[in-house]
Design brief:
The complex is a heterotrimer of chains A (about 180), B (about 200) and C (about 375).
Chain A lengths: L8 H4 L5 H9 L5 E5 L4 E5 L4 H10 L7 E10 L2 E9 L6 E8 L5 E3 L8 H12 L2 E3 L30 H14 L1
Parallel strand pairs in A: 2-5, 6-7
Antiparallel strand pairs in A: 1-2, 3-4, 4-5
Chain B lengths: L25 H8 L14 H5 L2 H17 L3 E2 L5 H10 L21 E5 L7 H10 L5 E5 L1 H5 L21 E3 L6 H17 L7
Parallel strand pairs in B: 1-2, 2-3, 3-4
Helix pairs in contact in B: 3-7, 4-7
Chain C lengths: L17 E5 L11 E7 L2 E8 L7 H5 L7 H8 L4 H16 L5 H30 L4 H21 L8 E2 L2 E2 L7 H23 L3 H7 L7 H7 L4 H5 L6 H4 L20 H25 L19 E9 L2 E9 L7 E5 L1 H7 L1 H5 L4 H11 L3 H5 L1
Antiparallel strand pairs in C: 1-2, 2-3, 4-5, 6-7, 7-8
Classes of the chains: A alpha/beta (about 180), B alpha/beta (about 200), C alpha+beta (about 375).
């Protein structure tokens, strides 16, 4: 069931670029909402349609997104989101694709077979946010050690406290020297 | 010294792809993995040259050996992060450190000083400890920059070690982010003064 | 009695593949980067890179900082092209908040950014020579130019590195009065310096013999692996973000885009030296055109509050496409600041590019990527 791109954004924000229309044409059966960020158009799709959307984005001639620029995880407090930024060298346009998932079921399909660069980006998002990309060849942690047990970039994880141990040590050394 | 567990540092695992090297045999590899809190130099009594020389020659020998040590400090090139660029700058033509006898040396086995320049993360801490233990005595450590002193601007992050002196003993701290090459030269001069002052008392 | 002895063919000899750990501390790993090479004789059969030794959490720490305080983290993330990283971040904040910096500020930004690009490429040339074997000589030449540029930056911002000079809305304070003359001198000195190091290394037989034909890359592979910047241009694709998606005032300047032919190590070196010369051209043109005027946009409060929204701003830094994805939910702190690091994407291609070469060639290959570990690990 095709959903209209939210035209009401023309009243409250900038008008949608032509890419929203192209996405609608190429993926007519897929439910999506489009909004205009400051530079690109961002298409929000559902988790189930993600693989189809990405495959079409890469292979369709009107879209031809051959370059995955960036894969970011975002922690909205009740949901996790992954944002894919795509660029086409042939046609020179860029867009963003967003997908959301609940934090206790963070499974998403991988796109590393479409763009090899997603390999490391997905590993990083998985270890810092807790995503699980189904189909990824090697989802081990990249930046942190294995077996960390918590996801650092989630909003629920606090900053580290400054360890005061150095001060205690200096005090103890002074007392010892004074004796 | 209080026997406190300083930090939780991950040990190197037995996955063959994370092995230190194929050549290190099994039992020594386990010892290298074991991490202890930092200890100052084990004082095993007097240095050999002091024991061999008769009393009247000990003081000039102290002076001579300390002068030799301070005049040719070879730092281990241990550039971690942004401070490494300023460290390289200070070895180069404008702020020449070679005139003090300081020649950067890549191998820990022949180095005297370790300049920890940059943030030490908890993932890197076993490697720092290993490198420190691979250096033969006498050895000194200069902690360059705010990150190596106490974590610096990154101190509130989970995976950052708040100061390299949690795993190795440090002799000179250089503040700055990054410290100017002149500040690093000042640190070396301070280290040279320290070496002269503690001559004869350190057991080596 | 003579015994028959036949020299065994090399395929009949039993060998084992040895794991060589090019560990986090190594004179040639450009920072704390570890590779575990599986080596058959001298040829690399497998390469397993381990990163994360410099993971300091600039992204998480920026979420607890003001928009102005987070500029300091950008400097330290990309610690060789600091102005480039600051520029990208500051543009992201300006796009979200709808601020337009004044003309003079734009010109100052462009001049300083291009000079910083030259300084970063000089560092590359120095390290590249060191990897090949000119231990120390190439560093001496390149740091001569770097010191001249850093002196100029110190006169403008007060710092040798980690400037934190760009602000959302302009720059922090105006340049000194003799900036134009001083900058012209710097450009002249740097031009001679580039010619010097060009003469030392470009036609050098040893460098050509070692680097020509080493791990060539096709444009399709480069796009697939996410390589951007000089690595992509070395493959032959003439794509520069300052031309393709122009930001700030780059559409007012004339400059060429140097490209290579095969994407091998020598082409990457040539592209970077060419880029240095083009940066000098841009800096000269900007110096001619720079107007007088204010250097900060009007009406900005001390604590910047940015309305809700998100933006992905990409800049052409010395390593490639540096992207800042900034999500803001109102308030004075970024909600999510994701840094798209070009060196991270290049490193993910290291294994595919190095398997089959020799160990020494892998080191040169790694050097040609020009990675900065602060940005790989953030």
């Amino acid at each position: 069931m095709a959903q209209e791109p939210s035209q009401e954004t023309t009243a409250t924000g900038p008008a949608l670029g032509p890419l929203a229309g192209l996405f609608q044409e190429a993926l007519s059966g897929v439910q999506m909402t489009a909004e205009q960020t400051a530079i690109d158009v961002a298409i929000t799709v559902r988790r189930e349609d993600l693989l189809q959307v990405m495959k079409t984005a890469k292979e369709d001639e009107r879209l031809a997104f051959d370059f995955l620029r960036c894969l970011s995880g975002v922690d909205h407090l009740d949901e996790l989101e992954v944002v894919y930024h795509l660029y086409s060298y042939k046609l020179g346009h860029s867009a963003a694709v967003k997908v959301r998932c609940p934090p206790d079921d963070p499974h998403l399909p991988t796109v590393s077979h479409l763009w090899q660069t997603a390999n490391w980006h997905e590993r990083e998002a998985a270890e810092l946010f807790g995503f699980i990309f189904d189909g990824h060849p090697d989802l081990r942690p990249l930046l942190t050690e294995e077996g960390l047990g918590y996801y650092i970039l989630r909003k629920t994880h606090p900053l580290a406290e400054i360890e005061e141990w150095q001060e205690d040590y200096l005090k103890a050394a002074e007392e010892k020297g004074g004796e | 010294m209080p026997e406190k567990k300083l930090i939780e540092v991950r040990e190197i695992r037995d996955d063959p792809r994370e092995a230190i090297s194929d050549v290190v045999p099994e039992d020594i590899r386990h010892e290298i993995k074991k991490l202890k809190p930092a200890e100052v130099w084990p004082s095993q009594g007097q240095a050999p040259y002091r024991q061999l020389l008769p009393g009247i020659f000990q003081v000039p020998a102290d002076w001579l050996i300390a002068w030799g040590r301070k005049s040719s400090l070879w730092p281990l090139t241990f550039g971690l992060a942004c401070c490494a660029i300023e460290m390289i700058s200070s070895f180069m033509a404008r702020h020449d450190l070679d005139r003090f006898g300081i020649v950067p040396w890549a191998s820990p086995r022949q180095a005297d000083v370790m300049i920890v320049s940059g943030t030490v993360t908890k993932k890197m801490a076993p490697a720092v400890k290993l490198l420190y233990e691979q250096m033969p005595y006498p050895k000194w450590v200069i902690s360059m920059g705010a990150c190596a002193t106490n974590g610096g601007p990154y101190t509130r992050y989970d995976r950052v070690l708040q100061g390299v002196d949690k795993v190795i003993p440090v002799d000179v701290y250089v503040p700055g982010c990054p410290p100017r090459p002149e500040a690093l030269m000042d640190a070396f001069l301070a280290l040279q003064k320290k070496i002269m002052e503690e001559r004869g008392k350190i057991g080596r | 009695m003579a015994t028959e002895y036949r020299v065994p063919h090399e395929k009949e000899l039993e060998t084992i593949d040895v794991n060589v750990n090019v560990g986090p501390q190594h004179p040639a790993t450009h920072g704390v980067f570890r590779m575990i090479l599986t080596v058959d004789g001298e040829q690399v059969v497998d390469l397993y890179p381990v990163i994360g030794y410099m993971h300091r959490g600039a992204e998480k720490l920026s979420e607890n900082c003001d928009y102005r305080q987070a500029i300091g983290y950008q400097d330290r993330t990309e610690y060789l092209g600091q102005f480039n990283a600051e520029f990208c971040y500051v543009q992201a904040v300006e796009k979200l908040a709808g601020i337009q910096p004044p003309e003079r500020a734009e010109y100052i930004r462009v001049i300083l950014t291009e000079l910083n690009r030259i300084a970063s490429h000089q560092m590359f040339v120095g390290a590249f020579g060191t990897d090949i074997g000119l231990f120390g000589t190439s560093f001496m030449y390149s740091f001569r130019d770097r010191e001249v540029i850093q002196d100029l930056f110190e006169a403008v911002t007060g710092e040798r590195m980690m400037y934190a000079y760009f602000r959302p809305g302009g720059v922090a304070w105006d340049v000194p009065e003799d900036f134009r003359e001083r900058c012209r001198e710097v450009v002249a000195v740097v031009r001679r310096g580039i010619d010097d190091i060009d003469g030392l290394m470009t036609e050098n037989d040893v460098i050509i013999a070692r680097c020509r034909g080493l791990s060539p890359v096709t444009p399709e592979d480069a796009i697939n692996w996410g390589l951007t910047g000089p690595m992509l241009r070395a493959t032959g694709l003439k794509h520069d973000l300052r031309r393709a998606e122009p930001y700030s005032i780059y559409d007012r300047f004339e400059f060429d885009i140097p490209t290579g032919t095969q994407g091998d190590v020598y082409d990457r070196y040539l592209v970077r030296v060419g880029e240095m010369r083009q940066s000098l051209r841009i800096a000269e043109q900007a110096l001619e055109q720079m107007p007088e005027g204010p250097i900060m946009a009007e009406g900005l409060k001390r604590t910047l509050r940015v309305p809700e929204g998100e933006v992905y701003v990409r800049n052409e830094t010395p390593r490639g496409e540096y992207g800042i994805y900034l999500v803001s939910k109102g308030g004075d702190k970024p909600y999510r600041l994701k840094i798209r690091s070009p060196a991270f994407c290049s490193l993910s291609a290291l294994k595919a590019m190095s398997v089959g070469t020799y160990v020494a060639d892998t080191i040169i290959n790694l050097g040609s990527f020009d990675i900065v570990l602060g940005e790989v690990d953030r």
